[in-house]
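Self-study notes.
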Amino acid sequence: MRNSVLIADFLILSPAILAFTRVMKPEGSVWSLATFMLYPGLILIDNGHFQYNDISLGLFTLAVALILQSRELCASVAFVLALNYKQMELYHALPFFFYLLGLCFGQKNWFSTFLKLCKIGLAVIVTFGFIWWPFLQYPEQVVQVIHRIFPVNRGLFEDKVANFWCSLNVIYKLKAINQDTLVLISALVTLLTALPSNLALFWRPSKDQFILALFNTSMSFFLFSYHVHEKSILLVAFPALMAYKAIQGHRYSNFTLTWFLIVSTFSMWPLLLKDGLALATLALQGIFVAFAHYLGLLDFGAKNEGTTNLKRTSPKPLTNKDLIKGHVQDWTLWTLFNLSVIGYGTMMLASVYLLPPAKYPDLWPLVISVYSAGHFVVFWMYFLYCQFKAFQSIVTHEKKTN
């Protein structure tokens, strides 16, 4: 069975990642492929915790690659396959919907809009119909399948997960609220927090914005949606791996993406420790950090791909004040990164060697979850800022050209 995971990696995930990297980064596709394949989170969950996320994430990655090649019909089919393989791909559904809708409404005339909309809609409906046909013949089975896809009765979150609700539960016990009310609140908060990113994508459907919207939307779902697993962070990690080239003009973008990926693996420590994967986690994390450092993904400035081609808008030379400000920002971010890693190291050691008080048996998993949730909120806000800067840049460019 473990070999079947490797076979899925070889047949589905690796070709999909290679297709994406050749479209997004044709000059360095081998290094990009290695960055994806060395991400510790997916290796540990699929090969240690034993899951088949590589199939759904592979189909999702293929869909994104097809979007970047402007092959929207094939992309729609690939994403529907990913969504029907694992319902968690709903984390990525809104950006696909709003991007494709934005392209449809961006056509030259209403007839072209209607025609493109019909083509994409037909591709989606036919693919859904083909997959669901065995169940559609027996309506009672459809109800049962939907019930199992959305296990509402299992609670707002399972175990300790690094999201908003689990952290809020420390202060206010959410079990006191009616379950139906919790479902409604969770759905509304998730949609409201995801909507700004997707509306920006709809109004200006660019490919870079699409990838940033994938990250921001999936982060909204992870932080605020109902019944989140700790391993669901993988659905945010893949858009983060895709975003290395998508974010232009931000000095700290690659560094912040790498920091997020490191934190995403550490956030699953309680689960990985329970599965006996402590040594494997530390080893794979070390390999990933070393590789990221080799590629310059933990550096600032010129080595950062997001700023390599960035030109200063002002002809004025940098003043001493500008240089000092830049050094202070660099030092502050590097210090915060090191404190973040030290904090994780301390909590991980404590979870292994220090028994929690009898009154609080889940102390260490809870502390790690809340600590990680704080990181994720900051990352989410930063990349929302990056997307709206990209949106503003597109609007400004359009005004200049018009």
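Second protein, same conventions, sequence then structure:
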Amino acid sequence: MNILITGVAGLIGSKLAEWILDNTAHSVIGIDDLSGGYIENVDPRINFINCDLSSQDTKLSTIFDKNKIDIVYHLAAYAAEGLSPFIRKYNYENNLIASVNLINNAIKHNIKRFVFTSSMAVYGDQDPPFHEEMKPNPIDPYGVAKYAVELDLKIAHDQHG
């Protein structure tokens, strides 16, 4: 089984990749643009690809074509909650458009499972603990982007399984 992990040079992505490689017989394809992660975090057993997910080029489609991916763990994000009102375009390109590019390829290539790491930012200033039955109420563009991806994934699942 081939597993794609985005944000593989970050803390969570790199640890997930190591766990999969240590505990399963699956191969890991790791994508990161190294804007927030570190190449030193990337296990040498990973097929690492430096890629900007927000780009409209064919690199992402080629990655899916060549690697016959079964599962996607989408951990990549530009996490800048407090900064997001001042970098709206950058926030939406890196958190929403990048995710949509990944979702489109997942649909096109009939991916079995797509796991997305959202954020507590989708719940805004509600009182914790947060849980998925709470009504989302983002209060900044970062939370809006994460919630938009959640909604898009639900629609993609409803329409494409």
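Instructor comment on the second fold: The helical segments are 11-23, 59-67, 88-108, 141-160.
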